[in-house]
Amino acid sequence: MNPKQLVGEKATEYVQDGMIVGLGTGSTAFWAIQKIGQLVKEGLKIQGVPTSKATEQLATELNIPLLDIANVRSIDVTIDGADEFDLQKQLIKGGGGALLREKIVASISKVFICIADASKSSEVLGSYPLPVEVTPFAYQVTAYQLEKLGCSPKLRMQENKPFVTDNQNYILDCKFDKIVNPAELTVKINKIPGVVENGLFTNIATRIICNTEDGGITIIE
Ligand code: 5RP
């Protein structure tokens, strides 16, 4: 079984009848959603809350009943991927550009399960450029302010145009050297006018289900 499928399917063991389930975004979350789709087909009764338009489409194709987040106040369990994680379960997310919706869903989740392969593990966060969602208006000014925090921001592009998120914003990928205090940095970044949200997830993950190099799985609680 491919490593992403292995951790994706493992995470679905935490999903039970009657739950509201946050559905993550990305190629690892894809496998968890596939498995949930199969379980729903076999009779599992859950309601999903998607973290992106892409996930909404996938879940709809799999006949997973969905809720509009506008009517949701609490989610039982969310399963989502990450671009980098450390052993304190702090994450960098947003490689797929869905970080704002992912963070809103995560913020009302009782349990947040991160699924990732070992290559994403880091002693200190910062190898992966931190995605920051910003307003298109004056994004150059926002980039300048971010730069003053010690990173080099790069506007994310797609097909020679700025990448546009599901919320009609841009992404600045901000390469920091080492993010020694992610909780502090997240406050500093989010104080900058023009920043909508950043991809640091601190004090959010309940557990990380991670592939090991020998083909197994390890769980960081
Ligand atoms: C999307 C994300 C994804 O969870 C993250 O990019 C990991 O994706 P993948 O599982 O494809 O490596 O944060 O915004």
Task: Describe the structure concisely.
By secondary structure, the chain is an alpha/beta fold. The protein has 6 helices and 15 strands.
Helix content: 25-40%
| Rg estimate, integer Å | 17 Å
Strand content: 25-35%
Q: Give helix and strand order, one letter per element, not per position.
A: HEHEHEEEHEEHEEEEHEEEE
Number of strands: 15
Please state how the strands of the largest beta sheet are arranged side by side: 2-1-3-6-14-15
Explained architecture:
With 221 residues, the chain is of the alpha/beta class. 26% of the residues lie in helices and 28% in strands. The protein is built from 6 helices and 15 strands. The chain has helices at 3-11, 29-41, 53-61, 99-107, 139-147, 182-190; strands spanning 20-23, 47-50, 75-81, 84-85, 91-92, 109-116, 130-134, 152-155, 157-158, 161-162, 170-175, 195-198, 200-201, 207-211, 217-220. The strands form 4 sheets. The chain has a 6-stranded mixed beta sheet with strand order 2-1-3-6-14-15. Helix 1 (3-11) packs across helix 2 (29-41). The protein is globular and about 50 Å long. The site of ribulose-5-phosphate (5RP) has 18 residues, from strand 3 and helix 4.
Q: Which features characterize this protein?
A:
six-stranded mixed sheet, single chain, globular, 6 helices, 28% strand, binds ribulose-5-phosphate, four-stranded antiparallel sheet, alpha/beta, 15 strands, 221 residues
Provide the fold topology.
Elements: H1 3-11, E1 20-23, H2 29-41, E2 47-50, H3 53-61, E3 75-81, E4 84-85, E5 91-92, H4 99-107, E6 109-116, E7 130-134, H5 139-147, E8 152-155, E9 157-158, E10 161-162, E11 170-175, H6 182-190, E12 195-198, E13 200-201, E14 207-211, E15 217-220
Parallel strand pairs: 1-2, 1-3, 3-6, 6-14
Antiparallel strand pairs: 4-5, 5-13, 7-11, 7-12, 8-11, 9-10, 14-15
Helix pairs in contact: 1-2
Bound molecules: ribulose-5-phosphate.
The site of ribulose-5-phosphate has 18 residues, from strand 3 and helix 4.
